[in-house]
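User: I'll paste a sequence; please echo it back and then give the predicted structure.

Assistant: Echoing your sequence first, then the prediction.
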Amino acid sequence: MGTSPAPVQEGKAIFTLGQAFYRPQSAIARDLAVLVAAVYRQRHGQLRVLDAMTGCGVRPLRYRLEAEADWVWANEGNPDLAATLLHNLGGLPPTACRITHQDANQVFFTCYQQRDFYDLVDIDNFGGPSPYVDTGLWATRLGGLLYLTSTDGRATGGHAPDRCLKTYGAYGRSHPAVHEQGLRLMLGHAAQTAAARGLGVEPVFSLFTGQVHRVMVRLVGKPTLTDETYGFLGYCHRCGHFQTADWRHLGRVSCRCDTDALPVVSGPLWLGPLHDRATLAEMQSLADRWNWRSQAKRLAIMAQEIDLPPYYYPLGEIGRRGQIDIPNRDRLIAALHAQGYRAAIPSVDWQGVKTSAAFEDCVAIARSMRAE
């Protein structure tokens, strides 16, 4: 007689995996989604969620139990997971849950045809998000949330720029801030896709977990593409300097270290904020009330970087180019503040600094710290 599979607990959800893929390291992405979903319900008085690629069903289970979603639609394209899903979600009221086994794009088109729009559409795909961004918008309520995923770090990290071009309509080059570049490529693609339909997206929060990029965006009624929010990122491999460029000046990008030095240029991508300050504050307040300390800490770090440039400097890169030991992060941030620069911990890489200082100034300040 076989033993039943051991249950797994995440948040308030208790579930079994069966043959479904489950990444425990991505729990933070689900935690933040639950927080923003709960905030949305508090603001709007309702929460209807569509999880287009639900796997074992942990996400809709948590949306219902923790964010108090009124309705969750759990769709999983693999019908072999039907028994696992029924077991995990069978305890939810039938008036609050629906389980289907369809292609995600078919679900999105059905929503549009039936004018059945959702407050939150969660798309946890493998690879890049481009096959689902346009269609996912069809199922999202105006003012609602769309949660996008990329697991293709080679494309966003500059190791497969041709694939990046196919996925995002943008060229991703290799440089020390590629973890953030992945988020910005996703946001830029989503904003451009929405703009083609006369709509726009606004980032609510952006998250890199070490393997996966996820962005939560809000669908708004007019395009959000401007020279300030959508352009190009240049990086000089000779001196380490980053710069942004808009479309009008793209042909005149050079580096401050040498007029003959040509930076590598990535883009177009999102250059605006990665997060929405007001929403982060509400999410952090809720995390504090729920005693979610690590999540509240991450949200505080996210809030500190909102107004900083669209790149960061890894501490190892500062040490290598400055020919010094890797500097202490908190001391370096304090020293940058003392010199009048804005600086914070980058949410995508806690062993780095995100600052308004030029790279050469950051290295010089790190050297002065060592001398002291």
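The mean pLDDT is 95. The longest strand covers residues 140-150.
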